[in-house]
Write a structure and sequence with these properties.
By secondary structure, this protein is of the alpha/beta class. The chain contains 20 helices and 22 strands. The radius of gyration is 24 Å and the shape is globular. Bound molecules: 1-deoxynojirimycin. 1-deoxynojirimycin (NOJ) binds at residues 85, 88, 125, 188, 224-225, 278, 348-349.
Amino acid sequence: MSQHLSENPPVNSMTALWASEADTPQKAKWWKEAVVYQVYTRSFSDSNGDGIGDLPGLIGRLDYLKSLGVQVIWLAPHYDTPNVDNGYDIRDYRAIDPLQGTMADFDRLVAGLHERGMKLIVDLVINHTSDQHEWFRQSRSGPANPYRDFYIWRDGRDDGPPNNYLSIFGGSAWEKDEASGQYYLHYFAKEQPDLNWENPKVRQEVYNMMRFWLDKGVSGFRMDSICFISKLPGLRDLTLAVMESLEHVYVTGPKIHDYLQDMHHEVLVERDLLTVGEAFGVSFEDTPAFVSEARNELTMVFHFEIVRIGRHDWQVQDWTIKDLKAVLRGEDTSSGPDGWLTSFLENHDNPRSVSWFGDPSPKGHGPSAKALATLLVMRRGTPYIYQGEEIGMTNIHFDGIEDFQDINAKGIWNNTVGIGKMSAEEVLHSLQRVTRDNARTPMQWDASNHAGFTTGLPWFRVNPNHVDINVAQQDADPNSILNYYRTLIQLRASQKTLIYGDFEDVDPDHPAVIAFTRTLGDDQFLILINMCGETEHYILPHGLKIAEVLLDNMSASVENVLPNLKPWQAGIYRLAPPADI
Ligand code: NOJ
């Protein structure tokens, strides 16, 4: 047993939240040590009975979040919005969506977090605005308007759009404005026109807005679609081959790094912020350029290779645990020598992880949710827990298109079933599993009507399984998924090795078990996760031997963890030093 490890405090006595420079490795940062919790406000907690989650509702749950052990909240867009894309269409960057509350509520949220030693990061949506934003209203009013150049306008070609770009949500990425006869670009919905980052006035407006929120006490930003802000020169037609994965094209704008460095220099420098970029489409190879500390751009990015494993766009495909392990290894190296990374299995745009990677049936639910929690929190990278993940919330059932809320799901339906290209059954089969709506059902607080989310009529269906899967029941059960998360988070916070230690996949070829080590100097932990619902006869490779169990979701002791790993068994173990093997 290593001397260093034995000096660490036991898990339950962990109290410190942030690194002290004296006892942490070089480049210790609060945002590397934190666990982040993502709040999708409209589905989190409703305080006024209108069926839509709001800021006072969230404030009422801060003690719960504190008890979970997370230190940072990532807040879904809180800005004034017509809600075409649930807030990712901003009408006014300096006002609060009245459905969510007031500026006073926002200030109370920041204060409430700070009182608890916690921090807030906000969503920054600056690739596009709402078409109801004042800038766009002005821009649309005619080519001579000073705001015309805030957006990307082009003449059409042969009675059609200027090029063959498609929107991520389906259909052309151009919308014709009848008054001027020109088209504007929108990578997402037509109500979400893309800003023209070539225009220095746009950049200055965005930077001023960022300073406004920083002055209110936010500690960083989750930057929405940030790698799309630089457009390709000439906006020429794309080949059919690349149109299969648009996101890989839209991230290749040549000025993206200039813009991010300019933003860093103008706004972020010397503020010690968490800045996480949504890097949908950015390859692992291209990632160090975004996250290298020496380059001063972002502190970390979200890749989607893991959450999107087993699907092409929205269509479901086969996948294996070996595929997943290859992605885990690739992602781990993507941060480069001086960058950092994220760990997440869910967000508001992807299905529930227990339904995708695990087993949502009554038998597999608890064990598989804990197995996934082990992977999420014990990988290298800042873990992001999505609301409800900590109780193992599952996908919901959809009978037909009328059950969906999401603009993306409706777009997919219109562009397939709507034009007779695919059958309703075929599309429903995939949408059921992948739709973003799965992540947006109301938070399950208790077994009561509407799951304790609202006293009114919820804006979206509550999953009927809330009677069995809810916070109140799991809070009271020491063996619950929720309490397993609490222990995992404390364990990570108490062991520098689990934060800063290197990651190594020690068994890349095993078809069912994920086995990796986290190593810092002499300290080393083994993490084992049986990713299937069968007992696995498992022998550790390289003669490795378990010396101590730190945490195991089956409460196994050293003698009986191996060789028979139970279905979905997972845990964190201390290895015997080589001499003892
Ligand atoms: C990514 C966000 O996560 C998603 O919810 C949104 O629809 C698009 N960006 C457009 O803002």
